[in-house]
Design goal:
Helix content is 37%, strand content 27%. By secondary structure, it is α/β, with parallel strands linked by helices. The strands form two sheets. An eight-stranded mixed beta sheet has the order 4-7-6-5-8-9-11-10, with helices on both faces. The chain has a three-stranded antiparallel beta sheet with strand order 1-2-3, with helices on one face. Zinc ion is lined by residues 20, 22-23, 25, 37, 39, 41.
Length: 290
């Protein structure tokens, strides 16, 4: 079965989650190659196994090179493993979720976080897990569909996502901008929204070598305040570890981090010549109830 056919079947089973991003009507899969609504708005399934449901062409800074580097950082170098492990533990053991759960990752990038979380949840218990990832960057979704055919991958606008309202038990928003209106519209009553934000020490080695002192400090206070105002019963958890990267890992980190985009050539070379580096990882999990 080719990737497009497989994607068509997966979407057909979960078609009740989706709506036409133009008119809001239900979609159906036609001939295993398109999604079409009652008003004949049509969206073709890409041969790689995803659907582009965005209504406008968007160009982002996030190109193929960045997503390939991010994938390597996650999959090959295990940079985020402790974070994803704790996140999966929280979801699997602490949250009151049914055995049949649907997860939406808003701003999923190249999809590795969502795919790993789904794998861990299925592995740990007799659960049925539906994972949907959406991102505005087509280059990210193309990589996601290439490596993770078990999930549903969509290119789409995070402010007007092509999903029916209140269908997801869990919304994930990992190191990605928030849209609170979308959180509210997407999460099922009694479901959860989990946002991961960087802690003040995240990448501090990189930050302090790149910036002068005043910019070297990062604060997540505004983001946290906004989240806790929106979800008054927010549970927070701090995560701290040090990731050891080899030379190749440093190169991929530099490629994927927006922080490093404005670095001088001299500083970049200094980093790229290191044989290895210990990098501080600090995150905060914010868990809100829908
Ligand atoms: Zn339509």
């Amino acid at each position: 079965m080719n990737k497009r056919t497989r994607c068509a079947e997966r979407i057909h089973q979960k078609i009740y989650l989706l709506k036409c991003p133009i008119c809001g009507k239900s979609l159906r899969v036609v001939e295993q190659k398109s999604l079409i609504c009652a008003q004949k708005h049509t969206f073709d399934l890409a041969k790689q196994g995803y659907v582009n449901l965005s209504t406008k062409q968007v160009h982002t800074h996030y190109g193929k090179t960045l997503f390939e580097a991010r994938r390597k950082i996650i999959v090959d170098h295990g940079f985020f493993n402790p974070l994803i492990h704790i996140l999966s533990e929280q979801i699997g053991k602490q949250l009151n979720l049914p055995t049949d759960i649907s997860i939406l990752d808003l701003g999923c990038g190249e999809g590795s976080h969502l795919a790993k979380i789904c794998q861990m949840l299925i592995h740990d218990a007799s659960r049925s897990v539906t994972g949907c990832g959406i991102d505005i960057a087509k280059e990210g979704i193309q990589l996601a569909s290439k490596y993770y055919p078990e999930q549903i991958w969509l290119v789409g606008d995070l402010a007007q996502p092509p999903f029916k309202e209140r269908q997801f038990n869990l919304i994930l928003n990992i190191l990605s901008p928030s849209n609170y209106q979308t959180f509210d519209q997407m999460v099922k009553p009694g479901g959860y929204v989990i946002k991961v934000i960087p802690g003040s020490g995240y990448l501090k080695e990189l930050r302090s070598s790149i910036y002068e002192h005043d910019k070297a400090q990062y604060s997540n206070a505004d983001t946290r305040t906004l989240f806790t105002e929106h979800f008054p019963d927010t549970i927070t958890q701090n995560i701290h570890y040090v990731a050891h990267l080899n030379r190749e890992g440093i190169r991929d980190l530099i490629r994927m981090t927006p922080l490093a985009w404005n670095v001088s050539e001299e500083k970049r070379t200094q980093w790229l010549e290191k044989e290895s580096a210990d990098i501080t990882c600090e995150f905060e999990l914010l868990i809100g109830k829908g």
